[in-house]
Amino acid sequence: MPLPIISRRRLLHGSSAMLVGSMLPAAVRAAGTAIRVGMIPDAGATQISVDEKRPLQEYLASKIGHDVDLVIPTNYNATVEALGNGSLDFAYLGGLTYVQAHARYGVIPLVQRAGDQRFHSLFITQGDSAIHALTDLRGKSFAFGDTNSTSGHLMPYYYMQESGIDPERDLKYRFTGNHPATAKAVGAGIVDAGAIDESVFHAMVDAKQIDGSKVRVFYTTPPFVDYVWVARKELDTKQRQSLAQAFLALKDPRDKTVLDILRGKEFLRADDAEYDTLRGVARKLGML
Amino acid sequence: MHALIIAWHTLLAFFPPDLSPSYLRYVWLPVTQTVGMASAGMVVALCLGIPLAIYVGTRAPGWQGIVGMLSALRAIPDLTLAILAVVVVGLGPAAGMAALAVFYTAMVGKVFAELFLAAPQAPLESLRATGAPRLAVALFGLIPLTLADLLTFGSYSFECAMRASVIVGAVGGGGIGTELVGAVNGLDYPRATTLIVILALLVTSVDTLGWFMRKHPRIALVLFPMGVATMLLNPPQVFVLRHALATFAGMFPPLLSTKALAALPALLWETLEIAVGGTALALLLAIPLALGAARNVVHTAITAVVRRVLDVSRAVPEIVWGLILVVMAGIGPLAGALALGIHSAGVLGKLFAEAFENVDTAPVRALEATGAGRLPIVAFGIFPLAIGPIAVHTMFRLEWNVRAATVVGMIGAGGIGEALYNAQQHMHYQQMMAYIAATWLLVILADVAGERVRRRLGWNYVAT
């Protein structure tokens, strides 16, 4: 049973009531008619990260001729559930979240970046570390991204197992929640090594958010299929097509701002059969 | 040593907070959502909890059943309720509100019911003797008799709801909590600091508002328009009853694999370790802090400073300390115990300071008369005299921390909470339900054990 905390007898009591009252108008939100587009928080989820993606939101709205709300849920699971309960119409998912959402809610794959069909995870460590191969990871501390991340958990985990490392026994691992956090954790020496999405890693090196000389890639996984844009199954073909077309029409360098946000060069159509191998891996690791 | 240096650098990265006008504009919406969620949760809790409590308080038929139901509901941690609400109601403040409404209905209902049951019976009997119906007995007997306690507890739970709205936000329930988790995960530490400062200010102003409310109960009516407005402005984005029920039904029956079942005792043990470790740390920190905050021990210039420190550590909920500590100290039970320790030190420090200030003055003056110095007076006078309340408060905190330990577990601090969160993340909902059931049993056991110990030791302390 909690105990009451008796309040301090100071401060401006009346003004707190006024402050609280004045907040009401600001809470008014736009009517809920907009198309709701979600993105897994692969690079963190805040009001600011939504705002950085404003050009994407405006581009999509102009192409499909409808207001678009961009939503970045706090975690991968929430994004999938939102497609299930209808609080999102379209979403950007990772490979694993896609197969989960497809199995549970029958979401329909639309488009993906050319690179997503041959995606890689990078294993990174500090520039001066003694780790040069997967087998050097024994006894080391290690960072995965979100537990539902394909390139930050599922595939790196799988390829470690394939090369004889049992993460459960051989590593002290933790989840950072997203890819930039993994890069920072490795860069700061909080962990000995980590697994990261290649497109996030390269974008961070290019933007000088991490020092390419301090963080070194020591292993690149074989290619696998990853990110995809999906629609919830209740949407009709016309609605699905209009979003797919918006992505397929993106051209570098004309739409560079939007493409940079999406960390891609061009978009291709995606289909469910591509994911069969990944589905097998996810089942094998008990994640589907 | 290396780890300490890294921790220090990480701490520095949280400063200075981002106070740029553009960011403060951004956080305005989350802040209003948080205030609204807490108000709406309280409005629902009061509307449902008070009638339930009156029903129990007038000992209407089947009141014991309602007490049992409320106790059972109250043992589900708020974060767990929020996770369920996000799955069922969808993302955003509607889910947060739903979770808070359930949690605080149970809390208000149970505590108010206890207050009503403990009310002096003689005046009630005489009211009944006039042939007054039950409702009249409640309105003119129960409520006036217990009004002071109702208001104290009511305003305290509003303060808790404000903190809890951050907890439910952390799993996608909207408001500051969602922003804060996003900022920490995105390594945006200066903005995380801004949000923590805003939260501390909110909790402190609610605390002040509560003090004002106890003097002028009508202020409480402010809650209603705010709560109702938030409910109207943040309806569930989409609420498909069939989907919600199907998802919920899919979580039953709770199921654990043989391997997971074998690991369960170790997980529960780890959660208990976090709770006990956190409470022990809080006790160690709180005693010196409380001495520094007690006006009859040190000069008021010092108590003013120490009291601010206590306010801050108390205003920031365990889960937020946990988020920071997981970044600094790494993932694991240590971060969880530290998080509970820091928050509880703030709570206990304040309560202990009051205990020190309220000791019987006669023995202390007798000591002073012997010419004893400051230190012996504290060590042999004030401290031993306050040992009773200190023990009771610590005991209550330990019970509370068992619940809190499951919550901090979900952000990577280990134990059953982490297992629960991982099962939810992987959509193994039957497994998640099994962990929820285990958590629930653990919390109930802790509450029952605490009550037994107190009764045996004769600590009949009013629980509110």
User: Would you count the extended β strands of chain A for me?
Assistant: 11
Provide the number of structural domains of chain B: 2
Order of helices and strands of chain B: HHHHHHHHHHHHHHHHHHHH
Our measurement of the CA-to-CA distance between the termini of chain A, rounded to an integer number of angstroms, reads 40 Å
Give a brief description.
The complex is a heterodimer of chains A (288) and B (464). Chain A has 288 residues and is of the alpha/beta class.
Structure write-up:
- The complex is a heterodimer of chains A (288) and B (464).
- Chain A is built from 12 helices and 11 strands.
- The radius of gyration of chain A is 22 Å and the shape is globular.
- Chain B has 464 residues and is mainly alpha-helical.
- Chain B contains 20 helices and no strands.
- Chain B starts with a helix and ends in a 7-residue tail after the last helix.
What attributes does this structure have?
A: 288 residues, alpha/beta, D-Maltodextrin-Binding Protein, domain 2, 2 domains, six-stranded mixed sheet, five-stranded mixed sheet, 38% helix, B: mainly alpha, MetI-like fold, 20 helices, globular
Furnish the topology, listing elements before pairings:
The complex is a heterodimer of chains A (288) and B (464).
Chain A: H1 13-22, E1 35-39, H2 47-52, H3 54-64, E2 68-71, H4 76-85, E3 90-93, H5 95-105, E4 108-113, E5 121-126, E6 141-144, H6 150-162, H7 167-170, E7 172-175, H8 179-187, E8 193-197, H9 198-206, E9 215-220, E10 228-231, H10 237-248, H11 256-261, E11 267-269, H12 276-284
Parallel strand pairs in A: 1-2, 1-3, 6-7, 6-8
Antiparallel strand pairs in A: 3-10, 4-10, 4-11, 5-8, 5-9
Helix pairs in contact in A: 3-10, 4-5
Chain B: H1 2-12, H2 21-57, H3 63-74, H4 78-89, H5 93-117, H6 121-129, H7 134-173, H8 175-185, H9 189-215, H10 223-233, H11 241-249, H12 258-293, H13 300-315, H14 318-329, H15 333-357, H16 361-369, H17 374-385, H18 387-413, H19 415-425, H20 429-457
